[in-house]
Design goal:
By secondary structure, this protein is of the alpha+beta class. The chain contains three helices and six strands. The strands form two sheets. Strands 3-4-6-5 form a four-stranded mixed sheet, covered by helices on one side. It has a two-stranded antiparallel sheet with strand order 1-2. Helix 1 packs across helix 2 and helix 2 packs across helix 3. The N and C termini lie far apart (35 Å). 20% of the residues are buried.
């Protein structure tokens, strides 16, 4: 089976679309080019970051909350070690967000935001 460049780009686009690339808006705040880490495999998020960076975007924010913090760090590390060795980490922010639960109460949730770019 021979793979064409169109087939490969289609697959990469499908993976990037499934990796939670944000459209730039969350809770009324503008956050362009953010990849929100969730329960999908690490490679989905790595491909999403590569897709954004290869389309000319200067910086990408990788954001993980709660149990996804470890995965966010692994995504950036894999991106740097294996795929884009010239990538730079511009900033790392850690903090706590207040999240409203379904029952109306609030909970504190740890988060990390890692901004990478050329």
């Amino acid at each position: 089976m021979e793979l064409s460049s169109e087939t490969i780009m289609s697959d990469v686009t499908d993976i990037a679309a499934s990796a939670d690339i944000e459209d730039g808006f969350e809770e009324g705040e503008e956050e362009p080019n953010m990849v929100r880490i969730g329960k999908k495999p690490i490679m989905n998020y790595v491909v999403a970051c590569m897709t954004l960076l290869n389309t000319g975007v200067a910086d990408v924010m990788v954001r993980g909350r709660g149990q996804s913090i470890t995965k966010a760090v692994e995504v950036v590390d894999m991106l740097r070690r294996a795929f884009m060795k010239n990538i730079r980490i511009h900033s790392v922010d850690i903090g706590t967000e207040e999240v409203k639960r379904e029952d109306g109460s609030t909970a504190s949730l740890s988060m990390i935001e890692i901004i990478v770019g050329h």
